Amino acid sequence: MCFHTSQTKKVIELENRYDVSLTKDDAREVYDIPRYHLNGFSHPDMLIIPQEGPSALAPALWGIVPGNKKPEQLTDYYKEAVRYGGGLNAQSEKLFNHFIYKNSALTRRCIIPVTGFFEPHEYKGKKFPFHIKNKNNDVLSLAGLYTIIGDVVTFTILTKKASPLFAKIHNKKNRQPVILQKDFEQEWLKDDLNENGINELINLNFNEEVLDTYTVSRDLFSPRINSDTASIIDEVKYEGIII
């Protein structure tokens, strides 16, 4: 599963990378602030590229909400949904039969740009976070779905069965986010993509040779510590953990 991410690029860097424009230019200064640890369970406001506006970089809340809800119901819904993972991730295997996902699968797919994400590795009964990033520090494009609740957009990150690399890292759940190859990012947002085409993109193997994977501080998992600091993406080695 993917419940923790980082996004440290300036808005202009994302705009240039994806050929998009921020929809709320007056919020540019806010989104320019590096966010080293975005904890999904706090439902942070992030930037996505939506299928319905593929030239837009739009604010959205992490945690997908059914389309029949109202903006004033979001807080209560998130409190209830925490037992189901808070809507942070969507199993791609359920894409076309889940009561929320099926309404977004064909028309409301999105790209979530991140500079990295974190996955838990279990060793001797303890969890140790791994940070996964691009070796060249380019963004990673995670595949997602979204809904529109009044004037609020909510989204989820798609996951799939772990590759051999991610099975070693996320060694209990054996899941990973769907990472889009750069050449297929725009394909993911096409309106004429059918069910077969969507599944093909989800199941494409990402070139993992470009990824850097390493352990970081266990402070990432502590609710008592502010882990949204630059040091949280620094490598911390632990005896016995080798991937």
Structure description:
This protein has 243 residues and is of the alpha+beta class. Helix content is 16%, strand content 33%. The strands form two sheets. A five-stranded antiparallel β-sheet has the order 3-1-8-9-14, with no helix packed on it. It has a five-stranded mixed barrel with strand order 4-5-11-10-7. Strand 10 (140-149) and strand 11 form a beta hairpin. It starts with a strand and ends in a 28-residue tail after the last strand. 37% of the residues are buried.
Write the layout of secondary structure elements.
Blueprint: E1 4-7, H1 11-18, E2 21-22, H2 28-31, E3 35-39, E4 45-50, E5 56-62, H3 74-81, E6 89-91, E7 109-114, E8 116-123, E9 126-134, E10 140-149, E11 152-161, H4 164-169, E12 175-177, E13 179-180, H5 185-188, H6 195-203, E14 211-215
Parallel strand pairs: 2-5, 5-11, 6-11
Antiparallel strand pairs: 1-3, 1-8, 4-5, 4-7, 7-10, 8-9, 9-14, 10-11, 10-13, 11-12
Keywords:
243 residues, alpha+beta, 5-stranded antiparallel sheet, 16% helix
Summarize this entry quickly.
This protein is of the alpha+beta class. It is 16% helix and 33% strand.
Low-pLDDT residue spans: none
| Helical proportion, percent range | 10-25%
Radius of gyration: 17 Å
String of helices and strands: EHEHEEEHEEEEEEHEEHHE
Q: Report the portion of residues in β strands.
A: 25-35%
Task: Name the strands of the widest sheet in spatial order.
Answer: 3-1-8-9-14
Oligomeric form of this entry? single chain
User: How many alpha or pi helices?
Assistant: 6
Q: What characterizes the major β-sheet?
A: 5 strands, antiparallel
